[in-house]
Write a structure and sequence with these properties.
There is one protein chain. By secondary structure, the chain is of the alpha/beta class. It has 14 helices and 23 strands. The strands form 6 sheets. Strands 2-15-17-16 form a 4-stranded mixed sheet, with helices on one face. Helix 3 links the parallel strand 6 and strand 7. Helix 3 packs parallel to helix 6 and helix 5 packs parallel to helix 6. The structure holds shikimate-3-phosphate (S3P). The site of shikimate-3-phosphate has 10 residues, from helix 6.
């Protein structure tokens, strides 16, 4: 386990290109593996999680090549034209819930037996949520008490109409990926509009699907996907991951004279609730340019903080679901706001890579903060001065990074134990932190 020491900083200055979006990288990797032809992806996430998806696609018969390095790195995936092979080994999803859940939908209709395994954290995460719709479609799968390892006995699937009981883009994606290959037209509704990268990615790879709802972000919609569709390879650039950028966005808000420019940032409206909440807290954004590629918005933004510092904000209801990955870092900066941050309706945080409510509480306590913990959230008053402490990442990437940000405004040194977890989504995080925040 590695330790990173983070010292108090005085400012954050500079520009940054964050790694390619983790969610989009998974989806492009999986659809490329199923498609006919060779997909070329620039700015594919450098994180360990999307690498797990690539390794699974290789095990399923796709060929994966990495060409070049750094910003010039390209991942080339030659697909299986719709015919996965039976893997010789279990499909190792590592720490990645996205890989395990979405891949289950993708492979369930293929005529082989598959075993999906993961690390200790992944083995603790709920998988019943995908078994339910997939088995309604005819999938045959065994779980152990609702958890991995998962064994799938591939068999043809049929369409269903499904109402997603919990807002989860991973569950939605598992159903869409299975529906793409089923007989009939699968439809599903979501009461909270979760990230829609799968919808855009499916269309980019040539699939047809429709969304019926007049409403915008946050409204109830029904998605329909006809089965028996074939995919064609694409050339694409993965937009920067706004959930990784969140750490630096929050860090920038901690210092009155910060100035941060984020290039090539994914600005899909189902992911930008963070910018709205940071705006409520007191962030000032300048959008320097925005363009669209394969349905995804990519832009350059400049951020600093309004005079008077950070106010406070309440995050509840659908907003909690839309900000689920950003809640740990928002909680970590909450003590430095004036009015505090209240997070409720976020019970899902307890079943992420760790119990993120419990770990945020443990680490806030270590840094001397006072707050109230609820089953579904945290109420963290503002105007608190934290002190350096020993942080337990719990091997959770977002906890390691969130508390590195809290450490920037604490008194004294902070040690992040289990800092290597950052590499799950953002291997360059601690290097970027030292570059942008001289300590
Ligand atoms: C993801 C969806 C979210 C999110 C995860 C990535 C995705 O999970 O927390 O980091 O790529 O679809 P849920 O679908 O479990 O909410």
């Amino acid at each position: 386990m590695s330790i990173e020491v983070v010292r108090p900083a005085r400012t954050l200055q500079g520009s940054l290109t964050v790694p390619g979006d983790k969610s989009i990288s998974h989806r492009y990797a999986m659809l490329a593996g199923l498609a006919e032809g060779t997909t070329r992806l620039s700015n594919f996430s450098t994180g360990a999680d999307p690498a797990s998806s690539l390794a699974c696609m290789e095990a399923l018969g796709a060929s994966v090549k990495t060409i070049g390095e750094g910003p010039a790195r390209i991942i080339e995936i030659s697909g299986t034209s719709g015919n996965f092979v039976e893997p010789e080994q279990p499909l190792d999803c590592g720490n990645s819930g996205s890989t395990m859940r979405m891949l289950s939908g993708l492979i369930a209709p293929h005529p082989h037996t598959f075993t999906l395994i993961g690390d200790h954290s992944l083995t603790l995460r709920p998988m019943e949520r995908i078994r339910k719709p997939l088995s309604q479609m005819g999938a045959r799968m065994d779980l152990i008490d609702g958890h991995a390892p998962i064994t799938i006995y591939g068999t043809p699937l049929h369409a269903i109409d499904f109402d997603t009981p919990i807002p989860s883009a991973q569950v939605k994606t598992a159903v869409l990926f299975a529906g793409l290959q089923a007989t009939g037209t699968t439809s599903l509704s979501e009461s909270v509009r979760t990230r829609d990268h799968s919808e855009h990615a499916l269309r980019a790879f040539g699939a047809t699907l429709t969304r019926t709802s007049a409403g915008g972000v946050g409204s109830i919609a029904r998605l329909s996907i006809p089965g028996g569709q074939k995919l064609k390879a694409i050339d694409a650039t993965v937009p920067g991951d706004i959930s990784s950028a969140a750490f630096f966005l929050c860090a920038a808000l901690l210092f009155p004279d910060s100035n941060l420019v984020l290039d090539s940032l994914g600005m899909n409206p189902t992911r930008t609730a963070l910018l709205d909440v940071l705006g409520l807290l007191g962030a000032k954004f300048k959008v320097l340019n925005v363009e669209e590629a394969h349905g995804e918005m990519i832009g350059t933004i400049q951020v600093n903080v309004a005079p008077g510092g950070l106010k406070g904000v309440d995050i509840t209801g659908a907003l909690s679901a839309m900000l689920i990955d950003e809640l740990p870092v928002l909680a970590a900066i909450a003590p430095y706001t004036r009015d505090g941050i209240r997070i409720r309706d976020a019970k899902e945080l307890r079943v992420k890579e760790s119990d993120r409510i419990a770990l945020v509480a443990k680490n806030l306590t270590a840094m001397g903060a006072t707050f109230t913990e609820y089953e579904d959230g945290l109420d963290i008053p503002g105007n608190q001065q934290l002190h350096g402490a020993q942080i337990d990442s719990g091997t959770d990437h977002r906890i390691a990074m969130a508390f590195a940000i809290a450490a920037l405004r604490a008194t004294g040194e902070t040690e992040i134990h289990g800092a290597e977890a950052a590499a799950i989504s953002f291997p360059e995080f601690f290097t970027n932190l030292r570059e942008l925040c001289p300590q």
